[in-house]
Specification:
It contains 10 helices and no strands. By secondary structure, it is mainly alpha-helical. The protein starts with a helix and ends with a helix.
């Protein structure tokens, strides 16, 4: 990570994320991984997604915070904490629906005595940071896909898309499908030996 990013304020990094700078988000992720882990630790029970999925939701919440933050006197950290928590709550609600009942009632594969997956040491954090940086670079989102991702993470409903951005719903849906495919492909590549 270049030194120039580590010396920037959260507000400036947020502005750089809005301008499309992936390195700025990598730096924000490194700063807020502890907050994301703490928020994820608040959730327990059968309706809660897997810890890895909950952490991903936390990163999506952080990205949404970076896109939506406007400096109006409140701190970025407080705003980010609320966005991260809200994203996780939404994931838990989605996971608790009847369609996911089979998954949520299944027994976990991990032993009861195993430490939680988000209990990482410094080396794990560095490795995760490098993997996250690599993933954003490999995604290679088109300008349309980046706009669609920004709209999606800012909470824009499908009905509002065309009014707010001029993007037709079909184009929005297709771009969102491509983004999800790229994310899945990136996860499979990261897990491959």
């Amino acid at each position: 990570m270049p030194q120039e990013y580590t010396s920037l304020s959260d507000q400036r990094l947020s502005a750089l994320v809005r301008e499309g700078d992936p390195q700025a988000f990598v730096e924000l992720s490194a700063r807020y991984i502890g907050l994301i882990r703490n928020k994820a630790a608040l959730f327990c029970g059968p309706a809660v997604p897997e810890p890895e999925d909950l952490l991903q939701e936390g990163f999506l919440g952080l990205y949404a915070a970076a896109l939506g933050y406007r400096d109006s006197g409140g701190s970025f950290g407080t705003y980010a904490g609320a966005c991260i928590y809200n994203q996780m709550v939404s994931a838990v609600r989605r996971n608790a629906t009847a369609g996911n009942r089979t998954l949520t009632e299944a027994l976990p594969l991990a032993e009861a005595g195993d430490p939680p997956e988000w209990a990482m040491g410094p080396q794990d954090l560095v490795e995760m940071h490098e993997q996250f940086d690599s993933m954003w670079q490999r995604l290679e989102l088109t300008p349309l896909e980046r706009r669609v991702l920004d709209l999606y993470l800012s909470g824009c409903s499908r009905a509002e898309v065309q009014q707010r951005s001029g993007i037709r719903q079909k184009a929005f849906d297709n771009a969102l499908y491509r983004i999800r495919s790229k994310l899945r492909r990136g996860r499979k590549e990261d897990k491959a030996p």
